[in-house]
Amino acid sequence: MYAAVKILEMIIKHDVKLSELVTETESFYHTQTKIACSQALKGKMMRKFLEDARDKRSSSADGVKIWLNGKDWILMIPDQYSDHLNLYIQAVNEETGQAIYDQYKAKIESWAK
Known about the structure:
With about 110 residues, this protein is of the alpha+beta class. The chain has one domain (about 25-110): TATA-Binding Protein. It has helices at about 1-15, 20-25, 40-50, 95-110, and strands at about 30-35, 60, 65, 75-80, 85-90. A five-stranded antiparallel beta sheet has the order 1-5-4-3-2, covered by helices on one side.
């Protein structure tokens, strides 16, 4: 709520239309998906994601988040209640986002063997 009020304050202060602000705001592609993974393999998947993140900017605060460049990233969070991994992907466009998904889906499938 505070952020919304601050944005409105800045719009009024700088005499900018909301439509102008929206057109100047950079858009991006974001998706969430689930990939089947047994409870027994979730620890291995966390370890493999951490190994994959070794030479990249990453965070393990909520699962494993790997920045692939300045704007594209993937976050893997094992579901604690069901047999799947949650993947969250943000990319500059849908084509890049789909490529990231395809790449990591293939990695997960190979790691599960």
